[in-house]
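Worked Example 4.2. Consider the chain below.
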Amino acid sequence: MNDLTNWTPRPFPPRKVLEGQYCRLEPLDVTNHGADIAAAFAGAHSVWDYLPVEGPKDRAAYEVFLGSMVSRTDIVPFTVVDKADGKAKGHLWLMEIRPAHGVFEVGFITYSPSLQRTRAATEAIYLCGAYGFELGYRRFEWKCNNRNEPSKRAAQRYGFKYEGLFRQHQVVKGQNRDTAWFSILDTEWPACKAAFQCWLDPANFDKDGRQKTSLAALNAAP
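Applying the procedure from the previous section yields the following structure tokens:
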């Protein structure tokens, strides 16, 4: 969006269900989702390596942690429900939401091993982007620890553009964090949206579930 003559602040994203083909993003609810999420993350300690908190040790601790997300008013926490079996297998936030400037971020992405590298995992990011841009936001952000190579690769696979490195940005778990910044702008979203939709199309997968064309290739296409 280049002409901002008539720009007005965007609405703060309401907590609502976002429906996809492979997953459903539901507003996080401890009662409805706590047991499934705690079970999905049991023993998956490496998931928390680059997150700013230690992984909860048991279901009770996990439910307290989830409750702390729900109570916040500055984020929109979603549960990722796998439509294949109806189980909650991860969670993420819309965060750093700045309605006055039309900026939002997907962050605190926490995927259990059973959700990682699935169509549902990718679709969850697509649903977040589509939601924000449909509300009229103009910038979709992704940030991660610069040492988190999988996260940086994922950002670029999804179509986010690398913008630079914030050096000594944070102290996390007693260590320095340099933060890599990525974004998709509203002018770039139509092409990214088309790439997501093409990749998510069931026709893009063979009978064994293998992709025919990668999302990275679709985003690299002129």
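The helical segments are 30-40, 59-70, 119-134, 149-157, 189-200, 215-220. The mean pLDDT is 96. Compare this with Example 4.1 before moving on.
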